[in-house]
Amino acid sequence: MKRWPRKNDPDSIRARQEVLGLDGEVVGFDLEPWAKAAEQLTGAAVIPVSVAGPLPISLGDYGLDEKGSVVERGRAADEVFVPLAHTEGGLTASMQRGIKAVAESGGFRTHVLADRITRASCFVCRDAGEALQLARWVEGEVEAMRSWLQEGSLPELSRHAVLREVKTHVIGPMCHVLWRWTTGDAVGPNMMTRNSYALNMGYVMERAPVKPERAMLEANMGGDKKPSFEFFQSGHGKTVIAETTLSDEAVRRVLRTTVDDLLELSWAGTHGAVASGMQSVAFTPASAIAAVFACTGQDLGMVGTSSMAHGTGRRVDGGLHVSVRFPGLEVGTVGGGTTLPYARTWLGVMGCAGAGKVYRFAQIVAAAALALEISASSAMATAGSENFFRAHHERGGLR
């Protein structure tokens, strides 16, 4: 069997293309800017990008205090155009309709509640008693661990990943440890993985009063790249709420439904979510989040966690207050795929390219997803869900 070339130099790229018989649209342009983006680069998949907007939004200006808590420092109104990379017929038109309804009702307002990213490690001990002893010791060592990381000279350590808290959970002889970090403007999985490994092997395994039999860097208690109750409740990445109050007139004229019909759908949909055990109470947030992620260089696997959502609707004087809480938006404006040329360009369209922009970006993603939620829910809320059917019938591609 011929060995598959694995380097990303021009000769290896051409060799892979020749073996697969590739030409034309997937290889007919310069791949050099993507050479560091993925292993065994062979071509590229082009996704059309549409732009919805302008999205009117009241954005908070956020930073972290000395304890790592998110603090609002000010607020400003803005109008933002949102790029969407997708092949889902009707998505952009639906989001645009939601934006129009909100624009005529006074705009979006967004809030960043928390900022943490978690690596869920596990130490296997001899028995439950030793696991409990280890858990108590780990919880009392946070300050010392933080200092050890800051003062350490290990080359693999990241200075941008700051240990904030530790949560333990003992199951039989297993001591699960959730290391909780902040990572600046990067999503931070690589940073906190390196630091978590250093803590596991260089601190816990060397200094703990009991000697674990085994350390596992990730043991799935958090829910990395998946919906989970832990992250739904405690957060992962940026926790953001987007809200707006839709006027009765905008609901009637733009969304072509009524507040009563929307509340009826919310009632049925919430009970349906509970009955299915769904780790979300929302309509279709993954579509909006995946579309923004795809054109801004985000990790697409993180759509699984990022699209967890909890939507609400409540009648108020003159209309309907709606909101959606995203507990786990894993977004970054530096590092990873955000360094690719197209990603920088689309982040720049939203004013989100580079350092100091990650909280702005998280809020825009949340507001865009709420715009789609509003429009898609309105289509479903009509009698017999006729508008939802017609949108898919007219824009659904091949028949």
Task: List the SSEs and their pairings.
Layout: H1 10-20, E1 49-64, E2 70-85, H2 91-103, E3 108-124, H3 128-139, H4 142-151, E4 162-171, E5 174-182, H5 189-207, E6 214-216, H6 229-234, E7 237-247, H7 248-253, H8 259-276, H9 285-295, H10 303-306, E8 310-316, E9 319-329, H11 341-349, H12 358-381, H13 386-395
Helix pairs in contact: 2-12, 8-12, 9-12, 12-13
The sequence of SSEs as H and E is HEEHEHHEEHEHEHHHHEEHHH
Rg computed from alpha carbons, rounded to a whole number of angstroms: 23 Å
Low-confidence stretches: none
- Give average pLDDT, whole number: 93
* Sheet having the most strands: 9 strands, mixed
Number of strands: 9
User: How large a portion of the residues is in β-strands, by DSSP E?
Assistant: 25-35%
Give an account of the 3D structure.
This protein has 399 residues and is an alpha+beta fold. 38% of the residues lie in helices and 25% in strands. Strands 1, 2, 3, 4, 5, 6, 7, 8 and 9 form a 9-stranded mixed beta sheet that branches. A hairpin with a 5-residue loop joins strand 1 (49-64) and strand 2 (70-85). Helix 2 crosses helix 12, helix 8 (259-276) crosses helix 12 (358-381) and helix 9 runs antiparallel to helix 12 (358-381). The longest helix is centred in the last third of the chain and has 24 residues, at 358-381. The radius of gyration is 23 Å and the shape is globular. The relative contact order is 0.15. The model has no long low-confidence stretch (mean pLDDT 93).
